[in-house]
């Protein structure tokens, strides 16, 4: 396999090499250093060289969505890889449990081959009061047998739950006990119940502030607890639609580096044109890059790719570049327990992204 030398200001995730280089074979980092570089089959030079991005919440892209065919899943992964995401968790919207199980079985080889980093079940155990772009007719209470069936595949990395549903707290504990990340989202829980859910093992806030009660000065709700608790990583969608840039900045600064995961929450239109799409069984209209349900106008995911999230976070919301990069790489990698991605030290296998001065992707080496 050919070797590629990526040169520029290298941010490995653990150190910055101003006149740096990274030697890769495929997605594997062989060496990284500063100054004189080793020989390679190909050299790529840019302003910045950063780790491949890690997205723990993505529903689609390139005109396709997860939950369909294996070919569609491969197209989604390829679309986001072209924008720098080399580690991708496939998020599935609410579906009947039998359909979720069938999708997991179909994706087993994609996970084994590394094309996908696992699956995120966003539903069906969500609140009808905050169902967002999930079909409310398919929402249900978590049953131990259903959880065991899906978690037992070993493919599920993240499960989003509303802890107020009957059996919700037990489901959080069951998810965490199975080695998956228990996430709180699409929830109407109050602050007290949210604290109990974190104590039970919840470690992730699914798209903080969205699909949950707003943060109020007399009722902090789930958002206040999840932002405050040091045990919790918070997902933030940096597209300028889901969060005002000021809110993005405030949340990122309060949580601090190591607790923020910038996610795409992308649907099929990411990397594609405006028009009508499907999310599960629901029609979605995308106008000027904003996805909304055709019936009612609720925001229905995003058309975001993580390179655009990086640019928005840094140039619009004012986040420090290293903080934003950590939220795209090291933090979500740690959430998944993946020490082999999210950095550019020798032995890493998440590839590299070469960026220009405007933080546009020049090359993805993976």
From TrEMBL:
Domain named Amidohydrolase-related: residues: 49-357
Cofactor (UniProt): a divalent metal cation
Active site: 265 (proton donor/acceptor)
Gene3D superfamilies named among the record's database cross-references: Metal-dependent hydrolases, Urease, subunit C, domain 1
EC numbers: 3.5.1.25
UniProt binding sites for substrate: 133, 210-211, 218, 242, 299-301
Cofactor binding, per record: Binds 1 divalent metal cation per subunit.
GO biological process: N-acetylglucosamine catabolic process
Source superkingdom: Bacteria
Binding positions for Zn(2+) per the UniProt entry: 122, 186, 207
GO molecular function, one term: N-acetylglucosamine-6-phosphate deacetylase activity
Keywords: Carbohydrate metabolism, Hydrolase, Metal-binding
Top EC category: hydrolase
Family assignment from sequence similarity: Belongs to the metallo-dependent hydrolases superfamily. NagA family.
PANTHER family in UniProt: N-ACETYLGLUCOSAMINE-6-PHOSPHATE DEACETYLASE (PTHR11113)
Name listed for the protein in its UniProt record: N-acetylglucosamine-6-phosphate deacetylase
């Amino acid at each position: 396999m050919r070797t590629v030398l990526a040169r520029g200001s290298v941010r490995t995730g653990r150190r910055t090499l101003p006149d740096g280089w990274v030697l890769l074979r495929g997605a594997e980092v062989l060496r990284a250093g500063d100054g004189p570089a080793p020989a390679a089959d190909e050299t790529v030079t840019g302003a910045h060289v950063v780790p491949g991005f890690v997205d723990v919440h993505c529903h689609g892209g390139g005109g396709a969505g997860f939950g369909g065919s294996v070919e569609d899943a491969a197209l989604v992964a390829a679309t986001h890889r072209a924008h720098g995401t080399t580690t991708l968790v496939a998020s599935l919207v609410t579906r009947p449990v039998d359909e979720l199980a069938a999708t997991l079985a179909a994706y087993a080889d994609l996970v084994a081959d590394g094309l996908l980093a696992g699956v995120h079940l966003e539903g069906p155990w969500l609140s009808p009061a905050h169902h967002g772009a999930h079909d409310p007719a398919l929402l249900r209470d978590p049953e131990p047998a259903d959880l065991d069936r899906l978690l037992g595949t070993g493919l599920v990395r993240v499960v989003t739950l509303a802890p107020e549903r009957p059996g919700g707290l037990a489901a959080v504990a069951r998810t965490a006990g199975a080695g998956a990340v228990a996430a709180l989202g699409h929830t109407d829980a109050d602050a007290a119940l949210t604290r109990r859910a974190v104590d039970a093992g919840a470690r992730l806030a699914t798209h903080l502030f969205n699909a949950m009660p707003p943060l109020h000065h007399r009722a902090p709700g789930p958002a206040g607890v999840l932002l405050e608790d040091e045990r919790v990583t918070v997902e933030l969608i940096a597209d300028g639609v889901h969060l005002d840039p000021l809110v993005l900045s405030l949340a990122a600064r309060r949580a601090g580096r190591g607790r923020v995961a910038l996610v795409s929450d992308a649907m099929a239109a990411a990397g594609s044109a405006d028009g009508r799409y499907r999310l599960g069984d629901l029609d979605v209209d995308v106008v000027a890059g904003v996805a909304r349900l055709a019936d009612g106008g609720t925001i229905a995911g995003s058309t975001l790719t993580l390179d655009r999230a990086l640019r928005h976070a840094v140039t619009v919301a004012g986040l420090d570049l290293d903080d934003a990069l950590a939220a795209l790489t090291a933090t979500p990698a740690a959430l998944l327990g993946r020490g082999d991605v999210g950095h550019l030290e020798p032995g890493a296998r998440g590839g590299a992204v070469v960026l220009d001065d405007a933080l546009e992707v020049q090359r993805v080496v993976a």
